[in-house]
Design brief:
11 helices; 0% strand; globular
Length: 272
């Protein structure tokens, strides 16, 4: 066997192992959500059931936690998008040591443990007599999710032609018009990706939310409290629903992204 074929085989083996390790827990969880067993497991298989979804539907605490999770997630997206975009534009306009320092400060929240961010957020706002609650959860999550948006927008800005901005200003456009009609349309793919990533990062966040939520529940806190007293099958039902929502949203985004890319390529071909 040649070295090229051996490398190809090793690559395929690695890829299959990677997919198995990543996806097998999801399949097991999905199977446990449909298994007619009080103990969440796939084996032994005791029959197909949707009872755990019915129990989840009839759980009022889950509905409240889901509503709170969506409120926080939409609030985080509304805050993180403009903050992250402004940070990316600022960093892109800098150079040298100043750029490196500002970039380091902007990225630092991603590297900070969630428990530290949650406690810091709680203590900081308590000095202003602001109690814990979902509003602090949104602010705490925004402090690091905005950095993800910044990285995505900054990467998109690398392909932006600064000459377009200069030409628009020379033709009499204001800075606001340049931002709305030239820069933001170029950043829409990154902003869309940032909104999706920010939304799901907020939904799955636990550490920051745990310290800042006050007496309110979110889905992650709700699931965490249920696991402490055991692992009811409704958790697997909830997990399967979240997995399906995530996969569906990812597919829709990818389809829309490819259609937008095809339109851009067609427009470029017409211009040429």
């Amino acid at each position: 066997m040649s070295s090229q074929k051996l490398s190809a085989w090793l690559l395929w083996i690695y890829l299959l192992l990677f997919l198995f390790i990543m996806l097998s827990p999801l399949f097991v969880m999905g199977g446990a959500a449909l298994n007619d067993s009080r103990f969440p497991s796939v084996y032994p298989w005791k029959g197909f059931t949707t009872q755990w979804f019915v129990d989840l539907w009839n759980d009022p605490r889950m509905w409240i936690a889901g509503r709170n999770t969506l409120l926080v997630a939409f609030g985080v997206v509304a805050l993180a998008l403009p903050i992250g975009t402004a940070g990316a534009i600022l960093i892109n306009s800098l150079s040298g040591a100043t750029r490196a320092i500002v970039y380091g400060f902007m990225v630092a929240p991603i590297l900070t443990p969630g428990a530290v961010i949650g406690i810091s957020t709680l203590l900081f706002w308590r000095t202003f007599s602001i109690p814990a609650g979902l509003h602090l959860s949104a602010l705490g999550q925004t402090s690091f999710i905005a950095a993800y948006v910044m990285l995505l927008v900054l990467a998109r800005l690398q392909s932006f032609d600064a000459g377009l901005e200069e030409a628009a200003l020379d033709l009499g456009a204001s800075h606001g018009q340049v931002l709305r009609r030239i820069l933001l349309p170029h950043l829409y793919p990154a902003l869309g990706a940032g909104a999706i990533i920010g939304f799901f990062q907020s939904v799955e966040n636990f550490n920051v939310t745990l310290f800042t939520r006050g007496g309110s529940d979110t889905l992650t806190v709700y699931v965490g409290s249920m696991v402490r007293t055991g692992a009811p099958p409704t958790i697997n039902a909830l997990a399967l629903i979240l997995i399906l929502i995530t996969v569906t949203a990812t597919i829709i985004y990818e389809v829309l992204r490819r259609r937008a890319l095809a339109r851009e390529m067609a427009a470029d071909a017409l211009l040429k």
